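Notes taken during the Thursday session

The instructor put the following on the board and asked us to keep it in front of us for the whole hour. The protein is DUF1795 domain-containing protein. We were told not to look anything up and to reason only from what is written here. First, the residues (177 in total):
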Amino acid sequence: MWRRVAVVLAALIAGAGLVTGAAVAALRLTAPPERTGLMRDAQAGVTATLPQGWSTGAVAPVTGFTSVVRDGRGALVMARPVPGPVGDVRKATAEAAELYSRLLLMGDRVSVVDDRRTADGHTRALRAEYKDVVNRPAFLRVMLVTRTDRSVLLVGLLQPEDESRRQALDEVMASVR
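Then, after some discussion, the predicted structure tokens were revealed:
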């Protein structure tokens, strides 16, 4: 009788071990990767850390930009080098924000929601609202990163605007080095 109990007990322990091992393996295989992605743009000379769910794109949707990252739900950040020196960083950022607002937002009402100096340049954010019932508000952030050897223009677009996704977009743009 003790032999039978020992065999059944050993079988139960082995079965529990197999179930535990399979569960651990399944959780590891289905869990999202812990490591975030990285965007590298050799032409612009920048790298950016990407949050989970963001990935690099093959071609930027706007001519002149050398890299693009997307979250797959309507957010993107594009980068391009700026030729020549930038005299007035604030003015250049405002002009770029105006240009890309007309090209990408085309809102019925566009307002500036953020305009400030950063540690290495300037940033301006715009919010577009639409009169029609189809389009929801959109968000555009333009950031000019100035360096001694070259400057870089970053354009972030979010359609539709959402606070948590806006934070992720700002996080990507702030991570540019």
